[in-house]
Amino acid sequence: MVKSLITLILKPPYGSEDSFAGLMFALSQIASGIIEKSDVVLMHDGVYNAKANQKPEAIGMPSIIDIINNLQAFGCKIYCIEEDLKEREIEDVVDGIEIIKSEKLKDILEEYDEIITF
Amino acid sequence: MKTLTIILKSGSMMNMDPNFALKLADAALKKGYNVNLFCYGEGVTVIKKGQNPKRFPNIEKICRNLMEKGLKVAACSTCSIARGIYEEDAIEGCKIGSLTNDLSQFIADSDRVITLTR
């Protein structure tokens, strides 16, 4: 039976519903009280979700930062792939997000019962 | 008896994912699995009554047929209401439910979870 999940977010915020849906999924699972562990990896274009100083109100979209803050309030880990950040020249990342090298991802994924991709 | 949960994020006419999800559900049911389908995001259009495609597979008809064979179907209420899909608009027997109760329970009861998203 599944007790722990890690959600991979591969898409950037705001251009589509995908990253919002994925982060909300991760948040809902830890909030359910049924799933014990629900963590997140931001990778590929998904690393844009980690960028600090987002202003989604400028386009009337719900805030990704709010969901990230809520995940962190529940004690969820949010990992972000260093190489993907560097490729996109993103340097300012939201506090509390753990930047990891891609080679470490395999070991992290092995800690979870299921891997969910958005 | 083993349990499979499929999380579907594509709409009924968006791409081949709903058709594939239902073919996979059918195969798993034939092998004796319990199968849950959770419709999320645009995927909630799968549960809409009255679909009548001219040239594509009728996802509603396939879904109804599999529900008779034991497929359990639930959809995210937030995503459904956002698209104007309420209980009375949904295939009879499909539950308009929540991520925190219905999906979490589906996942916790599963031996395998598959996400279909693009």
UniProtKB/TrEMBL annotation, chain A:
Gene3D superfamilies: DsrEFH-like. It comes from the Archaea. Belongs to the DsrF/TusC family. This is DsrE family protein.
Automatic annotation (TrEMBL), chain B:
It comes from the Archaea. GO terms for cellular component: cytosol. InterPro entries: DsrEFH-like, Sulphur_relay_DsrE/F-like. It holds the Pfam family DsrE. This is DsrE family protein.
